[in-house]
Amino acid sequence: MSRAFVDVDVSDAANMRRTNTLRVEASYVSARLTGSTARVVLNADPLSRIALDAGDPDAMKRAIADAGASQWIPTATLTRADGSVESQQALVACTAISRPGHRGPLGMLNLITMDLSQGVTPTDSDAVLASGSTVMASPSRIYVALGHGSVARDRYVEATDVHVFDTSSPNRTDYRASGSVEGSLLNQFSMSEYDDRLRIATTLSSFAVSPLPAE
User: Fold this and answer.
1) Cα separation of 166 and 189, whole Å?
2) 3-state secondary structure the chain
3) Are residues 132 and 43 in contact, defined by beta-carbon separation less than 8 angstroms?
4) What is the phi/psi pair of residue 67, to 5°?
């Protein structure tokens, strides 16, 4: 799956024109704008590319073991108005990809920074090996959360992972930390920040599950 971000010059309302287009191999989650700085949250699923043709678990393991960095990292392609490709490269550098300290759903959560006064060319990009679906922003941070469930002691328990990015610099974004809390979020308004601390409201729920019968 890919998404395109199009820069449209609207200075002349009677003759609006497209300038550049940025296409990324990822799905759009949400975005936040501060001044002319836009921060776009994206989810990429590298396993869907790496193990697309794997017919069984062993083939999937071999495909993952043989995959190079170019297969893990989504591509960003910048195209001019005339259709010519200005650049095609990895959306994020290897050195800007982090791994959270706890296990969670595997994916690549990307946060790209754009100075819209200069168009849709990213000025910075960061990533963490995780996924996200709910976004909340404060003046200096972006929080990206994802709910998921697990089975422990014959009970299904919900939890929410939260990933924190520092947005205090106008032209860059830095991954800072990840954490997990029990329960599930209702929406982005279930999170807020006060005195540099994240406040999060979750609903706790769990239920018993029966183990699968042995084959």
Assistant:
1) 19
2) CCEEEEEEECCCHHHCEEEEEEEECCEEEEEEEECCEEEEEEEECHHHHHCCCCCCHHHHHHHHHHCCHHHHCCEEEEECCCCCEEEEEECCCHHHEECCCCCCCCCEEEEEEEEHHHCCCEEEEEEECCCCCEEEECCCEEEEEEEEEEEECCEEEEEEEEEEEECCCCCCCEEEEEEEEECECCCHHHEEEECCEEEECCECCEEECCCCCCC
3) yes
4) -70, 140
Q: What angle do CA 184, 186, 188 make, to 5 degrees?
A: 110
Find out whether 191 and 200 touch, Cβ atoms under 8 Å.
yes
Instruction: Provide the pLDDT confidence category of residue 64 given band limits of 50, 70 and 90.
Output: confident
User: In b/e form, how buried is each residue of 167-198, taking b as 16+ CB within 10 angstroms?
Assistant: beeeeebbbeebbbbebbbeeeebbebeeeeb
What is the pTM (predicted TM-score) of this model?
A: 0.86
Q: How far apart are CA 172 and CA 113, in angstroms?
A: 6
- Taking residues 201-206, report their average pLDDT: 88
